[in-house]
Amino acid sequence: MATAPEMLPPPPLPELVIRPMHESDVEAVAAVERASYQFPWSEGIFRDCVRVGYVCLVVEVGPVLVGHAILGLGAGEAHVLNVCVRPEFRCRGVGRRLLAHVLERARAAGMAEAFLEVRPSNTAAIRLYQSMGFEHVGIRRGYYQAAVGREDAAVLRLRLGEPQARNPIPT
Known about the structure:
Layout: E1 16-20, H1 26-36, H2 43-52, E2 55-61, E3 64-74, E4 77-85, H3 94-108, E5 113-118, H4 123-131, E6 135-145, E7 150-159
Parallel strand pairs: 4-5
Antiparallel strand pairs: 1-2, 2-3, 3-4, 5-7, 6-7
């Protein structure tokens, strides 16, 4: 019996390379962002993040830039500001590996906790974050731009070193 192509698992990825973002990557990073979000960060925001010294990373599969992450560090806390993977590379472990790398950088820098915001409508990202031990700790009202008005953000925290989240995100 033949299997429909859409039911086949995606092919395995070649080796991922996670490396620092350079200003020369910003155009490709912004293209990934635009392909992923209705309200993407601008090239200027990414350039500023590189310029001021945030932890800015890209992930490549072969010669193709397929994702990026931005991490702020300070006062014992890490703030995951942006994690994004090209749509055709999602659900293949790229985001998980990128986020794990980011969190390891935070641990290595001596951070005790990591925080992030996520749209409650982004259920795939929420599942990833919960599976990696993040727990819901609050809501930022009207945090995100939306097609009509604003959307709240769920605030998540990971105590670095703890393996499991305990508080589900309210829906």
